[in-house]
## 1
Amino acid sequence: MSSFITPNLFRTVEYWLRDSLPKNIENKGHEYEKILVNKINNILKSRSDFFEFNLAKSKTIKINKKSEQIDCIFRFGKNIVICEAKCIVTVDSEISSHNTKKHLKKGAEQVKRKLNFIKDNIEESFKNLGWSYDCEKEYSLIPIVINSNKVFTGHIIDDVIISDDLILSRYFESEIIPLLSKDKENHLAWFIAYRNQKEAEHNFKKYLYNPPQLALNKNHIVYNISHIPTEIFDFKVEIHNLVIRQYDAEEILNAQYAFPLEKDQEIYSYIKN
């Protein structure tokens, strides 16, 4: 027997918001798509001297009487990134966590269908998007489900990456991703995601599968099972949860990561003090 919250104990916050607030949240999905597209475009424009790209769009692509609504699609180099956006307000119980995973699984199915549609009609899709098609390029189509509330980021569902707008957009902001910092500007250890445009194109998929921002959580969170004594009952009670195990700074610095880890010369003297 394990501990859980029954669905009758309370309603989810999302349902409470929908019923109680005057603001209509039924169109939250379309609003989130706009936010996602604008965020990506603002960053790409700021790095126009580095990336070769087509700006992100939310677009219905129509070809031969068939159509697909793409929540967010953009290109940088040979990579065509196809995003299925899921705006999920909150996950506040086991029930809503289960429902979130169902929504993300559905998103994975949708984005794979849309990817195949674009793949089968690649040149026509470029025309629909107003992009120039280069027949000499071997385009790589990358499907992603973007979850607005960040839950399940870093997971793979049905071979599709689950990510969020922060991790996705961060890749284009800078090639450096801090691990340990003294403050916002001064870093003691940092990952190098890429060193040039060619590496940026090549490493993008690896970044999505291995977000450096989650590296510590992945290495230092363990699954824990604890038992509650129940001498007066004839059954056992178990509590299953994730806990952070103890670790020190040197273990962090010497661990193996998907991306190279650079260190400031003063880091060891700094952590000892």
Note: Residues 144 and 161 are 5 Å apart (CA to CA).
## 2
Amino acid sequence: MKFDKETCENVFLESGYTWTKIDGPEEPDNWKYDASKNTLDMYGQFLFTITKFSADTIYMVNQKNRQKAYFINFNVKSQPATAITIDPEPLIIKATYPFTFKNANINDPQNFISVNDGINAKINEVVRSGCNSPKYNPEQHIAAFQLRDSLYTLYVVTTNGCPTGELSAQVLFYNNITKTFIDNSYQYKLFANYEYANNRFKPSDLRKRYKINGPDIEKLDYNHDGVTDYKFTRLWHNGTFNALSTTVLSVAKGQIDTLYSKEVPYPVTE
């Protein structure tokens, strides 16, 4: 970032923290920009990948916790910093069908996308509710994976450790025509399927033992009515019993409808 050599006012925002105002000239010994990698190193403590620029804002992603951050130049905005309140923007990653968590790349900024404020607010609300917390916590929110189709876009909001230490996902259905979410969602539990470490989803020992390698989320026309349906597959585990759980959902009249749901003991025995 190029700072004015005179006194300047900038604002640094990192998800999960209150904004910090930076007054004064730049500090060249403490701020390092690498054009070849498009990264900004602040004080050797914060390393950001810059994703895009606008007239008054630099958009970045913290490489440590994958949360989005911003530099906002309030001199360009011509309004006082105290008049601005910005809710943390969740990390949203563009994904494709068929979707498998172990193949999800959450480290490539080219996959990061920005959405409207209403979608951001809904994802933040889901994270707060799932974590039983009055405040959005970026340490517990991994990412929301966007799976777009012609009519509905799925946002698979993944959290780690909410509320009982489990890895879980809440699937939201967004109507691309009305620009609204349907009222209900689908709880997609992942604790027996994956572990999350070092910004990656790693298959659980049970998945590897049973060689479960198929997609987690697929789209299909289950009942051949010309409307897209959504298939969710996971390993269900209660401590002593394992089953391969398959659920097919459709959306009708703004509500989720279950077309098929079955649990088959796993591994299948003759």
Note: The two ends are 65 Å apart (CA to CA).
## 3
Amino acid sequence: MLFVSYFNIQGYFAQSLLLSVIGYIVLVIPLTVLTLIKQRKKFSTATSGQHDHALGSALQHLENIFVLSTVSSDNVVSSSVITFKQSHTDENVFYVVTGKDTTRVKNIIESHRASFTTWYDAKTGTRVSSNAVSATVISTEAVNSELASHPEIKSLSDNFTKNVIIKLTVQSALIESFQSSPEVVDF
């Protein structure tokens, strides 16, 4: 209303328009900026710090998004794009947060197996994939324990009441690139 009186704007429509524009600037733009900052943090590179290992070095250039595939007991494959976080303590451990009732959770409970592939880096062509992944579903009280041990998981979700954590342990991974020969990393 300060702007309405300062500029001596008359008429309901003109006042409403001015107040809507000011409200948009004050409320929507800052919330949009904060959301973008949060998303940028969520989809930042998968790892942090310096890496002496090939897997950590490859993931350093990639976003933390991969295609996670699981298979049901009747051999039906299910794949989905999902964000992940690499463990800060174990290079070959990744975490995914997902809904309790998803197909991927049911498949992992049945088979304890999964596979994944990352996007490739546009500059180097670096891509990581593995079909030798042990998967475990962490739910209920174990979620809090895992979050305490690995706080990096908290960046994947704000709410763990309807979600579970999937812990993926990679036995071997294939690292490919436009610039070098494929490399198999065993753990």
Note: The two ends are 65 Å apart (CA to CA).
